[in-house]
Amino acid sequence: MNTTVQSLFQQGLALHQRGDVAGAGALYARVLAAEPKHFDALHMAGVVASQNGEYARALELFGTAIPLAAQNSGRGAAYNNRAIAFTALGRYAEALADLDQALAAGFRNIGVLFGQAMALHGLGRLEEAVAAYDVVLKLNGAHVDALYQRGLALYELGRLAPARDSVAAAVQREPGYAPAHNGLGLALSALGEDAAALRCFDTAIRLQPNFPSPHINRSVSLRNLGQREAALESLNRAIALQPDNVNAHANRATLLMDLKRREEAAESLRRALSLNADYPFLRGMLLHFKMYECDWTNLAAERADLFARVARGEPASTSSALIGLTDSAALLRKAAEAWATAKEPENPALGPVPKYARHDRLRIGYYSSDFWAHATAHLMAGLFECHDRSKFDVTAFSFGPDTGDAMQKRLIAGCERFIDVRSRNDREVAALSREMEIDIAIDLKGFTEGYRAGIFAHRAAPIQASFLGYPCTMAAPYMDYIIADDVIIPPHLYQHYSEKVIALPGSYQINDRKRIVSDRVFTRRDLGLPDSGFVFCSFNNNYKIIPEMFDVWVRILQSVQGSVLLLIEDSAKAAANLRREAASRGLAPERLVFVPRVAPEDHLARQRAADLFLDTFPCNAHTTASDALWVGLPVLTLPGEGLASRVAASLLTAIETPELIAPDVQAYERLAVDLAKNPGRLAALRRQLDEKRLTAPLFDTELFARNLEAAYMRMLQTHHN
């Protein structure tokens, strides 16, 4: 071997050992210029490339070096260092194979074993990774990276307390290690200890101000604590530090949704998807936003792609976003399963619910963020007042706003306890419920906006049921029942629900017989309607309108001369898009008339100016349909397969007017036109609704309360048996 070349290499190695990576790299390059097949120079040049983040170049150098190795020890070290480069590139399978080769060559040290654990971790082989980290820690219990990474693997496995303890040990060993403080915050937040988690994230930021992850994770804890504006500020800081951080943009979109800033949320979703087209759940969310604006550009292709992804089990959409796009009960369950598994898994932190002695009165807990002037509250208020207090003890757990409005005051008066739990985390609310020995916990939110399924994931009560607010299965193992009826979930569809279906007589939807209708008389001019002509209406959210049903509505309007369609204006953009869609179908845009949202009592009153409510599909009118029926406005509906597409049919059955349930699209269209052209038939239907309003089951709040209480008793009996 050329002694001059070898001397250059030794000089390079000395510089490398002193930390002069650039100087070492220059000398290795001189060696390779003289001897291109110098194994040691190739190997160490690869190490320099890795240290400089030039991983593709490092792989090339290691790949050239390894076949030239004269000794196993040299070959083993090269395999190990190439594995480090593969790991940095996320090529974990290749890293693991190289580490096996290093061991086979007799190169065995704690670095190789830690590398194996990291590769297994990267491949998602979490149990094996934890075991591999344990091997490292047996050799060196103070290995901070192994303690930290083991904690992350345990966190990903949902073993939160051991995860916390492992990362806490890393923090204790190395208090200045910012990632460990960040990891400890993650574990604490998952355990519901967000105030403590915030302190960890703040420490990580203080130690490493340019580290974006703690800013992102801090925003999650702030959001959990109800501090949404502060959470948004944290995300904006993360994005300023790392503009291409997909997690920051995705979380920002979710937060902006909470803040009702939909256009900004959609922009954040687009940015996130531009960075990672397969980021979980964002495709469905973005399509849902487009539907809010009635932007149907490329909808058919995007919808088909989304459905295919969900059918394959990919986390492509939330079930909430999918409800307005499909009536497939199987597809909706797939989406719910993906969400529940990824975002709301069962949490065993509190252990099993202890057995309670039978109480003199059955203890029912209702949990919601909607205990104020919200659609759910308008339905539920009468139920609170009608519960039989000699047999049932009722507590409301509120994690929504403290509005002090008339509806909230009515709800507070209607139950024995109204507990504001906004400042308590999910685990604390579940623990409080257990302390109070709640027998049956009723979730009124499911996975809708403002939900807190984590309360139920911790097991708030021995019996847990989903009711009213979420028209889909939760597909979560901790939800025991879904309260329904034989119309919204007929027995042949039970297979699409993970919960046991408990069917009430009549409709599943509770209604308040005390709903107030304003005395105000809305004239056609008040509503922007022409002086004459038939008035169709659909007061559903704009996102429920899909092109296929809009086509039907246009044909109906074209068949009924002088008719108009009265719609809610959710946004100016949605109204403009719908008018443009009407024009493209040959319908004068002015035949669509938009009105703003108003107070509930005025909304009820103005429906009297309409002649026939045209329901949406696949997501029907829910509270909106019962509003119409309460004032005697006929609702024409088309049921499908999913729960959300069968609600109006349930209501019409319970008000004993099934003739307004169309069996198919053609019948829906024919019946709408026939009713518009036969005023006598329509008037008879209106009289029938007016007569049935106070005699049929739909608006009999007392009867509903008794039926629901009987269902609760059946649940309890099943539990004790």
Task: Itemize the secondary structure elements and their pairings.
Layout: H1 3-17, H2 21-34, H3 39-51, H4 55-65, H5 72-88, H6 92-104, H7 110-122, H8 126-139, H9 144-156, H10 160-173, H11 178-190, H12 194-207, H13 212-224, H14 228-241, H15 246-258, H16 262-275, H17 282-292, H18 299-311, H19 319-322, H20 329-343, E1 362-368, H21 375-386, E2 392-398, H22 406-414, E3 417-420, H23 426-435, E4 440-443, H24 454-457, E5 463-466, E6 481-485, E7 500-504, E8 535-538, H25 547-559, E9 564-568, H26 572-584, E10 592-595, H27 600-606, E11 612-614, H28 623-630, E12 635-636, H29 647-654, H30 665-677, H31 679-692, H32 701-720
Parallel strand pairs: 1-2, 1-4, 2-3, 4-5, 5-6, 6-7, 8-9, 8-11, 9-10, 11-12
Helix pairs in contact: 1-2, 2-3, 3-4, 3-5, 4-5, 5-6, 5-7, 6-7, 7-8, 8-9, 9-10, 9-11, 10-11, 11-12, 11-13, 12-13, 13-14, 13-15, 14-15, 15-16, 16-17, 21-22, 25-30
